[in-house]
Amino acid sequence: MVKVDKNFVNTMYSVEGKVALVTGATGALGRVAAKAYGYAGAKVFLTGRNANKLQELVDEFQAEGIDCAFFAADPAKEEDVDALVKAAVEKYGRVDILFIAHGFNKPCNILEQSVADWQYIMDADCKSVYIVLKKVSEQMVAQLGGAEKVASGQGGKIVVVTSQRSKRGMAGYTGYCTSKGGADMMIASAACDLSAKYGININAICPTVFRSELTEWMFDPESAAYQNFLKREPIGRLAEPDDFVGYIIFLSSNASNFITGAACDCSGGYLVC
Ligand SMILES: NC(=O)c1ccc[n+]([C@@H]2O[C@H](COP(=O)([O-])OP(=O)(O)OC[C@H]3O[C@@H](n4cnc5c(N)ncnc54)[C@H](OP(=O)(O)O)[C@@H]3O)[C@@H](O)[C@H]2O)c1
Q1: Quick check: CB of 219 below 6 Å from ligand 1?
Q2: What is the distance of C-alpha 57 from the center of its chain?
Q3: Range of the structural domain that residue 227 is part of
Q4: Which residues are catalytic?
Q5: 203 inside domain
């Protein structure tokens, strides 16, 4: 248990000097999260499948003074993830924070969807989360050097982006909702495996729609999609990736040491109406 003193309160949101591994770093939220960790003084190890985009990001971040590097990997392939963790440890010696922000969807009515397409979504959004979560957790446990009981949050912080769709169904979403719901349950179960003994906190954040290349079309205020969404968004607008930075830093820092296994709402109030 942490004793609350002035120093703890003044530093509880700090991720300074930590090593943060970010998947889906080439995506809308992964990019913002990676930059936020960098601005907050963390060393950032970026990954995604697209090496060219990752190189561009690293160039951009380094020009802003962020200590970062990348390794291209497919999170659904075990051998890629093994190589990714090895590369991160070779570069920075350890991994303190894992932020999982890769994801994929291809909506399709179940009657028209092929089993292969459904499986692809499951692999991209659920199996891949398992592989990255498992491999990075193994690394975090190894870093403890056999310590028997580690204080909450001191073994590492893992934050996984799932979705409000992990909690409710939607037409054409038998792949996406199932995989995101599975990821939420995976996080809850992994927290039971890892938090008490190894001090690794694992949480999901569950957004509704935020701006990305894929969702940009929904942000036209005149569109029916936008208007319909607003009826269920008490906060009065759809989200930008930047809206989640506070939550991400909170869940990655000592401020959230007593939170684990949670699927955290960050939906602008979507849940309550
Ligand atoms: N945008 C939204 O409205 C919204 C709402 C709720 C939840 N989410 C979830 O939030 C996370 C981030 O979303 P985002 O909008 O920032 O995503 P995004 O901009 O679409 O980027 C996601 C990244 O994931 C990687 N990716 C794409 N397909 C993949 C696959 N088949 N396997 C592995 N990686 C793949 C891509 O990087 P590479 O091509 O470099 O691998 C891509 O840059 C995702 O998990 C998404 O499901 C999004």
Answers
A1: no
A2: 18
A3: 6-272
A4: 176
A5: yes
- CA 147 – ligand 1 centroid, Å: 36
CATH of the domain at 134: 3.40.50.720
Query: How many angstroms is it from 144 CA to the middle of ligand 1?
Result: 31
Do the domain assignments include residue 265? yes
Query: Per residue in 92-107, pLDDT tens?
Result: 999 999 999 999 999 9
* 1 assigned to some structural domain: no
Range 46-60 average pLDDT: 98
Ligand 1 centroid from CA 172, angstroms: 18
